[in-house]
Every structure is written in structure tokens, then in C-alpha cells.
Amino acid sequence: LYLPSVLNNGSTLLADRSSPFTGNQPIALLPGNRLATGQGTTVSVFEENNTPVTTFTTISCSGLTWDKISGKLWVISGSQIASYSQTGTLIDGPISITARSYR
Q: How do residues 62-90 score in pLDDT, each as one tens digit?
């Protein structure tokens, strides 16, 4: 399994990158060529060479996205959304939302 990896900050150039996990998990590309993955209530962050950086507890993770404007990692579940720093500090929420199958 290969994932896209940003080669240059702000660039649209992509290269193949081996996945540090197995199965289907939400992912988000973070600054510095880092990759965040979510499984259950755990988010893990990896360096470009797939070396683990940190793991932290979040709301149940159905989807992840990096907000480069505010520097937040947003985690969405079926009924909540919350934002975290790259190190796992809770910034916003969790906020209740209409229950749906969000991705």
C-alpha cells in the first residue's frame, strides 16, 4: 500500500510513500511531510520515513483533515467534531453535530 507524500511545502508534486499501517484508516498529510492516521480513538503521527512521532487519544475517528490556515488537525466522528494540535492538545470541541456517516 502506498500513500502520497508532499515533496515540497505548498507543492502539488507527489511521490509514493509506504504506509506505516494496514487496513483502511483515515489519513491526513501534515506540515513537514508528516502523516496522521486514525484508528478508533487513537491518532498516530509519523515522520516521512514512517518513524512514529506521537500517538494521542481523540474522539472516535471516522475522518481526519489538516487545516493549514489555523494549524489544526480536525477529527470527525459520526456525531462529534474536534480539533487538535499535531502533538494531541485539544483545541476545539468536541462539538456535537448531526449524526451521519462522515468521512
A: 899 999 999 999 999 888 999 999 999 99
Task: With beta carbons less than 8 A apart as the criterion, state whether 17 and 3 touch.
Answer: yes
CA dist 51 and 59 (Å) reads 24
Angle subtended at Cα 76 by Cα 74 and Cα 79, rounded to the nearest 5 degrees:
145
Residue 55 identity: T
Q: Is 79 helix (H, G, I), strand (E, B) or coil?
A: coil
d(CA 102, CA 96): 13
CA angle 70, 76, 78 (to 5 degrees): 155
How confident is the model over 25-45, as pLDDT tens digits?
888 989 988 999 999 999 999
